[in-house]
Amino acid sequence: CPVINCGRVYDNASLLEGHLKRFDHSPCDPTINVRGCPSNLFACVSCGQQFQTEEAWRKHLEVSSLVTDGHSIEQTPQWIVCFACPDCYLLFNLRDECLQHMSAKKHFTESFPMNDTRGGAMPVPVSQYVKNRLIALCKDVTFNVRCSLCHKVLTSHQAAQAHFNVHCRQGCAVATSNKTVAQVVKQLQVRGQCSLCCKIFHSPAEIERHRESTQHVVEVNQTMAKALLQHCRFSEKHHGHAERKRLSGSPERPFQKRNKGRECGESSGKRRRLRGNSVAVWFCECGLQFSEEATATNHLLAVNQIFHQCAVCGKQMGEPSITRLHMSRFHGGAHLSNFLFYCRKCKVEMPRYEDILAHVAEAHSGHTFLTDCEVPEELADSKPSTS
Predict the structure, then answer these.
(1) Cα(121)–Cα(109) distance, rounded to whole angstroms?
(2) Within 13 Å and on the Cβ side, how many CA atoms surround 297?
(3) Helices 128-139 and 224-247, packing angle to 10 deg
(4) What pLDDT, on the 0 to 100 scale, is given for residue 247?
(5) CA 105 to the chain's CA centroid
(6) DSSP conformation letters of 131-184
(7) How far apart are CA 330 and CA 324, in angstroms?
(8) What is the pLDDT of residues 327-372, one digit of tens each?
(9) 376 - beta bridge partners?
(10) Is 7 helix (H, G, I), strand (E, B) or coil?
């Protein structure tokens, strides 16, 4: 990209042209170097060790839980999907790519040095949760694109072209943002945590105040990797407590309604014919009726602004068939199923279909579940209900 401080690089001119038209030149984007498939490691939240498989992590936990050092058999692993430069906190799918970046940019210092001073700065493992949270926070950071000569704010690609063609022919576009990626990461840095109170602390002063007021033992994190893991761990705990509280007055979760037919082995993408002249139809929470589950599911994803996002170049598409065609044409067909589910409303991405459905149920409203009902065949072909 020719815009100074943008830093984005594309494999071909058509992708660059699309980026220029979108005019998304924020320097506060941690994903500009993310290429290819994500890493797939499992991290222990107690000690920070990483494992190639979930089974290896489970064996580690079974052995370590016998020792009173914070490990518990009830813990869940954190899925490590990428690595961050310890200086600028740009993300890379592979650790070796991050090391190459650090060497090229001479980023051998840590933006947030902590208590562990052993060795030099190394890539920081980043979980899926932290990656999603960081992306969402960075998207909220405002940025401007200005002319390098007259400092006029340029609001679109067309406006920039017109400005440099007519006014400042020797000028260029410069992007600036209110915060850097590293400054945003600071919000996720957990300096310590109290397991008794289920609280996290973001400064030594907070830790000291809690110790003095409660006499509790606060565990202090020694590395940034551990600090981010604890952010995941306690955020998920708080989310779980809030979810249980929300569901305490509700007899069933929205997506349990949707999955009843599947549990009975009756699920099908096509219309299901039942006894007599009855058929199964699907209703969205909004009242719309669909004769096929696939159509109902497409409605649910579309109305909640859920898109398929190419994991290679980041392009977003509405249909899986278009996504696979894109992968085949632009990426050689090597990763036909290598796409994520992206929520444009909340600016989060999820690796699995089940995860994005759970996100919709928890964070959205109005179109959060489907129910299948038995109706007479003549009513199934009537116009959708809007009641």
Answers:
(1) 6
(2) 16
(3) 90
(4) 43
(5) 27
(6) HHHHHHHHHTS-EEEEETTT--EE-SHHHHHHHHHHT-TT--EEEEESS-HHHH
(7) 10
(8) 777 766 545 566 788 888 888 888 778 778 888 887 887 777 777 7
(9) 278
(10) coil
Which bin fits 85, alpha (ψ -120 to 50), beta or left (φ > 0)?
Answer: beta
Phi, psi torsion values for 322, nearest 5 degrees: -70, -35
Q: Which residues pair with 174 in a beta bridge?
A: 4, 146
Length of the chain: 387
| Centroid of chain to Cα 230 | 17
How many alpha carbons lie under 13 Å from residue 77 in its C-beta half-sphere?
Answer: 21
> Which residues are CB-neighbours of 144 under 8 A, at least 6 positions away?
153, 175, 176, 177
Could you say which DSSP state residue 65 is in? Answer: T
Tell me how far apart the alpha carbons of residues 86 and 349 are, in angstroms, rounded to a whole number. Answer: 23
Encoded amino acid at 343, one letter? C
The bridge status of strand 153-154 relative to strand 143-147 is antiparallel
What is the model's pTM? 0.62
Task: Record the tokens describing residue 80, joined without a space.
Answer: 């490590």
